[in-house]
Amino acid sequence: MRRARPQWLAAAVALQAATYLAQGEVWRAVARAGGRRLRVTRAYDLSLAKLFVDQAVPSAGFSGTAFAARALRRGGLARPAAAACVAINQSTYFAAYAIALAAGALAAARRTRLLALAAAVFLAIAAGVALLFRRSSRRPPRGLLAKTRVVRRVFEALAGADPRLLRSLPLFLKCAGLQLIVIALDAASMWILLRALGTRARPEAVFASFMLANAARSVSFVPGGLGPFEASSVWALERLAKTGLAAALSATLLFRLLSFWLPMLPGFFSSRRAYRA
């Protein structure tokens, strides 16, 4: 408490607000490529709605993306372009996380091999998701995958995706860059929260710790990764960033407050507006 610097909290709040702006730019980029302009405020609202749906229905981001695609269709975006939103958002999400995990693994190469393993797994998942989406835009999946309710709804939203948008490398790279910005803003928020607690830590170590915690969150079936994220984050910050247990726990809980709990209420109202639109 004596070392705390509360003024840094305002910067963390601003960075978290910016994550929804970057996510919204993914929707805007695909909508623009599909021939329709999307307002910044509308895209921001959709990003908040996506967060709420993702937290309420844990599915590695698929449920929120499918919800956003349906909302875009109601807003006038052609179905092929809205379906492409699902494919592009999810494939770039996994690709960006694989790249960020690889970067975190390099930053923590001398400390842990967990990130290297997680990066390899996410690279494989990213490639698999991209191939699956390209195939399923032409033909729906079969077997056990098709029997999963959330996955079935995602691929229903994906059906008939515009192949021109799916094959656009500039669009893919732009959206992947925006996804990387979201990750960077989240990691920077964690570093700033540590500064708010009066704790100095090397940015690359905090980034590696954050990516390790996110890997644990992503493979968890608990809504929002509640529990696995916190445990992994505290362990990684203490071991990799050498922050001490008190600072690691406090920064992790503050980050969850800003990134998970506080946006839930506006996200709930945003999802209701999107559903009624």
Helix content: over 70%
Mean of pLDDT: 80
Q: Spans of 5+ residues with little confidence (pLDDT < 50)? A: none
Mind summarizing the main beta sheet?
none
Q: Kindly name the structural category.
A: mainly alpha
Structure in words:
The protein is mainly α. It has one domain. Helix content is 77%, strand content 0%. The protein has helices spanning 7-33, 40-56, 62-74, 79-107, 114-136, 144-147, 149-158, 163-166, 169-196, 203-218, 228-239, 245-261, 264-276. The chain starts with 6 loop residues before the first helix and ends with a helix.
Short description:
With 277 residues, the protein is mostly helical.
Descriptors:
single chain, 277 residues, mainly alpha, 13 helices, 77% helix
Topology:
Blueprint: H1 7-33, H2 40-56, H3 62-74, H4 79-107, H5 114-136, H6 144-147, H7 149-158, H8 163-166, H9 169-196, H10 203-218, H11 228-239, H12 245-261, H13 264-276
